[in-house]
C-alpha cells in the first residue's frame, strides 16, 4: 500500500478543471479557479516564513476565501487548527498555546476577540487578518504534489468528559478514507452537489469540502444555516445532498410546509446525535430521503450510516459501520455485548484519529489496539444495525454544537464563591438540548444567578453558557465523589 | 494509513445481505448467498490441507461456481493463479511449476489437458476437479476477517515482448485501489449493474468481480461473449456498465442495427488497445456512452480513463490518469516528453503491481522507483490527455519511420467489406521492416488485395500502406478478444 496520494486539489484541477467546484453568494468557481486561488494564497503565506509541519490557527467564517486559505495551507504542508468562531479570547489562547501555533489567520470582523488574546502568553504567535494576508506579495513556493497519508492535515479541539479541550489529530489519510467510505455507502453521481451550511470548523463542514474535491462535485457554500436559503438551494440550485443536524432539519421541514423536494435531491445526511422519531416519521411522510449517521471529530465525520434500502425499515438506527470501519459494543465488564445488550460503542477504521495532540495519556486511554472507545452508549440489533442511545452519557448537543458539562463545571468551580457545580443538558424545543447548571455556594456567599451567568459569559462561548442556574445544598455524588448527573436530571424533572 | 481492510465479501454480506450480487444463467444470488457458498467451499478446501499463503492454480470457466471458488480461496488467505483456459498442457506446466502451486482446481471438461500435465515435473501438485471438490466434507475454518493490503491476492501470467510468461503479482491493495480509482471516475449509482462477459482469468474480468463486491452492485455473468446476449442483457436486464474491447463492440453495434440502448445504460468501458476512430464515431452517432480506457495486468485493470465530459471532445484519447495514478511519457533519451511528443508510457499508483513472481531482474527492469515502464507508446496532448499509439512490441519501424499497426488496422476495418483486420511488421532488406495486413472479409464480400491496397493508399501515407494483404478465415485472438500479433508473425513465417 502506498503511503502517498496525489495532492487532491492539484489532481482534481488537472482531471476536471472546468467543473464547478464551489458556489458561494451567486459566484461560481471551477476546480481550476479554486486551485489557482489557493496557490496564490500559498505564495502569499510563504512571506510569513511558515515551514512544512508548522501549526497555523484559522479563525474564519464560511466563505469562498476560507476555502482558498484552507487549500493554500495544504499546498504548503502546514497543519491547520480550525478554531470555533464562537470561542472567547481565553479559549482561543488555550488552543493556540496547546498546539504551539506559529500563526493565527483571522477575519477582520474577529478583531475584537483577537485583540484580547494574551500576547504575553503567546509571545511567538504571529497574527494576521485574511485581509492583510491577501495584500502580501506572492513568493515562489514548492507546492506539495503529494500528501503522505500519515501526516496531520487538521486539528479540531473537543472537550472530553473531564478537563480541558483536546486537539484531535486528523491526518490526510483520515479525511481520504472518510470520503471513500462515505462514497461506497452513498454512491457518487454525475451532477452531485453538496450543500455546506454547517461550519468549516466542525468535521461535518470540513469533510464536505474534502469530499467535493475528491469526488469532483460542486459544493454550495452558505455563510450560515438558514432554512429558507437551504430549501431554496435544494429546490432551485440542484443540490442533491445536504448535511444537517436535527434542529436544522426541523426548521427546514417547518418552512417547507406543503412543498416537497425535487426527485434529484437524494440524501439528507442527518448527524449530530439521535434524532427524534417524530422528525424521522414526518420526513418519511414527506418523502425526504433521510440517512441517519453517527460520527465524531475523532472519526473524521461519518463512521456508521444507514444504507438506502433500510432508511425506513430501520427508522431510528444509525445503520451499519461503513465499508472500511469495524464496530463493537463493549459491556461494563469489557466483554462484547450480545444483540440488544447496551454498552459502550467502540470503533476501528482508517478514518479514526491516531490520537490527541501532545496528550499521550488521553490517547492511550481512548485508543486501545486501534479501537477508539467513544464513550457513547448504544446497542446492535440482531442484524447488526446500530442504535445510539446516548452520547457520552453527559454530552449536551445544542443546535448541533457539542457542549461538555465538565468544561462548564470547571468554569463555575473557578468562581471564588462556588463550592461545587454540576451541569446537565435538558430538552429544548428550539435547540434540542440546553445546558443547565447546579451550584452549591460556599457558606455565607452572596452571589445570585445573574452574577454567575455574567461570569460564565466572560469565560465561555455563548452557546456554552447555562440557560439557568439552580442552587442546591449539596450535589448528588457517589462514594468516589463522582457526580451523578443522572440524579440531577431526575431532580430537574 | 491502515494496512488492513475488512474482508470485502464478509463486509459486503454484512452491509447489504439481500442485494443481488450475481446473475448467471437465469439464477440470482444475493451477497449473503455468495458469502455462504464461498464459505462452504472454503470449508471443503480445508480438507486439502492448504495453508495461508499457498499458491493454488484455477483452470475454470466463467460460471457462478467459479465466483464461489475464487472468494472461497480468499477466505482461506490462499493466493490464486488464474490460468488461461486456452493454455496447452505444456504452458500450464510452466505456470504451475514457476509459481510452485500446491494445487490445481479445474473443471471436468478440462480433463483432457490436465491428464497431459507432466506429473513427474510437478510431483507435489495436487489436482482436483471442482466437481470432486464440491463432494468433499466441510471442515472447520478460521475465515479471514481482514485482508492485509500488501498481501498477494492473485497472480496472472503475461507474456512480455520476449521470453517466457511472467506471473504478475496482484495484491489485495492493487485490486482495492483499482476499484476505488474506477469509482471516482465513473461514479457509483444505486442500481448499477456490470456485465461480465470477458474471462475471469484476465484482469478485465476479475476486476469486475471485485468491484461488484466493494461497490455492492450486481454482476451479470456470461459464460462467454455473444453480441446478441450482451445486447439483450443491456436492453432487458438493466445492465448499466459493460467492459469490452473493440472487436466485441463492433459486433454489438452491428447486431444492434437501428435499435439503441436504454438511457440507464451509462458506460461502455472500452479497453484492450487503441480503438478505430470509425467505431468511436459510430458509437457517438448511436449515443452509446463509450469510455476509452487504458490498463494492463500490471495495473490491476484501468489506470487511465476518459472522464464523461470529454468522451466526445477527446474522441480517441484514453483520458487522464485516475485519481490516485500518475503518468509520464519518457522519450528514448529518458527525458520527460513535451506535449505531443511520443515516448514510452510510464505509470505509478497504488494499483500498480509490486512485481513479477520470482523474477527479481525483470521486476527491477520494469519498475523503477515505483514507476512502471509499460513498454507502450503514446503521447499527452497540451491538456494532459493520453493518446495510446501502440504496444511497443508491435511497433513497426520502416525506413526510419514509426508505423503503428493499430492505425492501419483501423483503416482496414473502416472498409465496408472487412470484418476483422490485423497488421504486423515483417523483416525487409531494404526498409528494415514493412507492414503486412491480414484481413477477414465479411461473408460474400468480393474484394481482392488490390482493391484493399488502393483503399489504403487513399487513407494512409505511402510508407504505412501494407506491402501485402493476406486473407484469413479468422484472426488469432485471445479469450478477451485481444489480437495476438505474435501468432500472425508465426503464421507469416
From TrEMBL, chains A, B:
Q: Which EC number(s) does the record attach to this protein? A: 6.2.1.26
The biological pathway it contributes to is: Quinol/quinone metabolism; 1,4-dihydroxy-2-naphthoate biosynthesis; 1,4-dihydroxy-2-naphthoate from chorismate: step 5/7; Quinol/quinone metabolism; menaquinone biosynthesis
What PANTHER family has UniProt attached to this entry? Answer: AMP-BINDING DOMAIN-CONTAINING PROTEIN-RELATED, LONG-CHAIN-FATTY-ACID--COA LIGASE
- Name the protein family: Belongs to the ATP-dependent AMP-binding enzyme family. MenE subfamily.
Task: Outline what the protein does.
Answer: Converts 2-succinylbenzoate (OSB) to 2-succinylbenzoyl-CoA (OSB-CoA).
Return the protein name.
2-succinylbenzoate--CoA ligase
Give the matching InterPro entries: AMP-bd_C (IPR025110), AMP-bd_C_sf (IPR045851), AMP-binding_CS (IPR020845), AMP-dep_synth/lig_dom (IPR000873), ANL_N_sf (IPR042099), MenE (IPR010192)
Q: Which organism is it from?
A: Bacillus aquiflavi
Reaction catalysis annotation: 2-succinylbenzoate + ATP + CoA = 2-succinylbenzoyl-CoA + AMP + diphosphate
Q: Which GO terms describe its biological process?
A: menaquinone biosynthetic process
Classification via Pfam families: AMP-binding, AMP-binding_C
HAMAP family xrefs: MenE
Amino acid at each position: 500500500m502506498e503511503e502517498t496520494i496525489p495532492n487532491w486539489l492539484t489532481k482534481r484541477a488537472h482531471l476536471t478543471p472546468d467543473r464547478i467546484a464551489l458556489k458561494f453568494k451567486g459566484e461560481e468557481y471551477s476546480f481550476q479557479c479554486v486551485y489557482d486561488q489557493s496557490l496564490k494564497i500559498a505564495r502569499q503565506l510563504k512571506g510569513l516564513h511558515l515551514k512544512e509541519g508548522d501549526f497555523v490557527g484559522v479563525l474564519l467564517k464560511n466563505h469562498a476565501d476560507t476555502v482558498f486559505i484552507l487549500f493554500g495551507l495544504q499546498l504548503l504542508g502546514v497543519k491547520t487548527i480550525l478554531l470555533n468562531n464562537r470561542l472567547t479570547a481565553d479559549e482561543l489562547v488555550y488552543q493556540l498555546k496547546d498546539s504551539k501555533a506559529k500563526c493565527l489567520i483571522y477575519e477582520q470582523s474577529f478583531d475584537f476577540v483577537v485583540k484580547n488574546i494574551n500576547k504575553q502568553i503567546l509571545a511567538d504567535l504571529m497574527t494576521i487578518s485574511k485581509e492583510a494576508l491577501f495584500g502580501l506579495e506572492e513568493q515562489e513556493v514548492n507546492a506539495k504534489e503529494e500528501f503522505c497519508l500519515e501526516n496531520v492535515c487538521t486539528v479540531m479541539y473537543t472537550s472530553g468528559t473531564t478537563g480541558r479541550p483536546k486537539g484531535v489529530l486528523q491526518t490526510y489519510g483520515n479525511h481520504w478514507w472518510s470520503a471513500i467510505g462515505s462514497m461506497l455507502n452513498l454512491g457518487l453521481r454525475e451532477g452531485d452537489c453538496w450543500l455546506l451550511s454547517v461550519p468549516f470548523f466542525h468535521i461535518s463542514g470540513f469533510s464536505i469540502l474534502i469530499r467535493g474535491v475528491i469526488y469532483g462535485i460542486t459544493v454550495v457554500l452558505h455563510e450560515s444555516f438558514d432554512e429558507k436559503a437551504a430549501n431554496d438551494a435544494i429546490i432551485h440550485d440542484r443540490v442533491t445532498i445536504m448535511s444537517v443536524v436535527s434542529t436544522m432539519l426541523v426548521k427546514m421541514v417547518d418552512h417547507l410546509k406543503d412543498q416537497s423536494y425535487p426527485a434529484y435531491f437524494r440524501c439528507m445526511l442527518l448527524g449530530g446525535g439521535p434524532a427524534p422519531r417524530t422528525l424521522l416519521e414526518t420526513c418519511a411522510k414527506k418523502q425526504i430521503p433521510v440517512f441517519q449517521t453517527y460520527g465524531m471529530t475523532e472519526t473524521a465525520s461519518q463512521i456508521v450510516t444507514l444504507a438506502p434500502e433500510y432508511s425506513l425499515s430501520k427508522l431510528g438506527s444509525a445503520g451499519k459501520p461503513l465499508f472500511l470501519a469495524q464496530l463493537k459494543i463493549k459491556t461494563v465488564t469489557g466483554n462484547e455485548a450480545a444483540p440488544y445488550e447496551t454498552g459502550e460503542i467502540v470503533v476501528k477504521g482508517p478514518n479514526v484519529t491516531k490520537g490527541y495532540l501532545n496528550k499521550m495519556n488521553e490517547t492511550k486511554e481512548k485508543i486501545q489496539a486501534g479501537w477508539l472507545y467513544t464513550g457513547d452508549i448504544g446497542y446492535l440489533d440482531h442484524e447488526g444495525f446500530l442504535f445510539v442511545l446516548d452520547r457520552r452519557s453527559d454530552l449536551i448537543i445544542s443546535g448541533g454544537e457539542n457542549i461538555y458539562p465538565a468544561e462548564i463545571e470547571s468554569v463555575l468551580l473557578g468562581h471564588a464563591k462556588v463550592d461545587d457545580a454540576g451541569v446537565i443538558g435538558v430538552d429544548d424545543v428550539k435547540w434540542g438540548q440546553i445546558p443547565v447548571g447546579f451550584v452549591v455556594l460556599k457558606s455565607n456567599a452572596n452571589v445570585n444567578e445573574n452574577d454567575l451567568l455574567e461570569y460564565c459569559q466572560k469565560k465561555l462561548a455563548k452557546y456554552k453558557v447555562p440557560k439557568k442556574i439552580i442552587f442546591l445544598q449539596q450535589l448528588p455524588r457517589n462514594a468516589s465523589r463522582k457526580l451523578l448527573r443522572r440524579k440531577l436530571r431526575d431532580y430537574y424533572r
